[in-house]
Amino acid sequence: MNGQFPNTLNEQVTNTFHNIKIVMQSEDLHAEHIIKVNVWATEKIDWDYLYNEWEQLFDHDYPAMTIGYITELGLPEIKIEIEIWAAKL
């Protein structure tokens, strides 16, 4: 990536899940290792889109999840932050 963020929230969801998948694979982590998800968004989330992207990566495993709408994230162009906590127990 060239340091630019995708424009739309849905594009950012796709990009974020792609990055999460790469990191999890590099650590040999899978859906069953996810224990917590935090989602922060600056605009309304298209839940059908987000869950479709989730299910493509992690099937129907839904861990504990915190969702919050906030006024801004670290940079003005960032519309969503998805934080995954995963651990091998």
List descriptors:
Enamine deaminase RidA, house cleaning of reactive enamine intermediates, YjgF/YER057c/UK114 family; 60s Ribosomal Protein L30, Chain: A; alpha+beta; YjgF/YER057c/UK114; 3 strands; three-stranded mixed sheet; RutC-like_sf; 2 helices; 24% strand
Structure at a glance:
The protein has 89 residues and is an alpha+beta fold.
Describe the structure.
About 35% of the residues lie in helices and about 25% in strands. It has helices at about 10-25, 45-60; strands at about 35-40, 65-70, 80-85. The protein has a three-stranded mixed β-sheet with strand order 2-1-3, covered by helices on one side. The longest helix is centred in the first third of the chain and has 18 residues, at about 10-25. The termini are far apart.
Instruction: Specify the CATH class.
Output: Alpha Beta
Q: Which percent range describes the beta-strand content?
A: 15-25%
Distance between the termini: 33 Å
From the coordinates shown, what is the CATH architecture?
A: 2-Layer Sandwich
- Total helices: the number is 2
What would the CATH topology be?
A: 60s Ribosomal Protein L30, Chain: A
- What is the name of the CATH superfamily? RutC-like
- Secondary-structure content class: alpha+beta
Count of DSSP E strands? 3
Give the biggest sheet.
3 strands, mixed
Mean of residue pLDDT values: 92
Strand order of the largest sheet: 2-1-3
Q: Helicity, in percent?
A: 25-40%
Instruction: Outline the low-pLDDT stretches.
Output: none
Globally, the shape reads: globular
Computed CA radius of gyration, to the nearest angstrom: 13 Å
Number of domains: 1
Order of helices and strands: HEHEE
Protein name: Enamine deaminase RidA, house cleaning of reactive enamine intermediates, YjgF/YER057c/UK114 family
Organism: Paenibacillus polysaccharolyticus
InterPro entries: RutC-like_sf (IPR035959), YjgF/YER057c/UK114 (IPR006175)
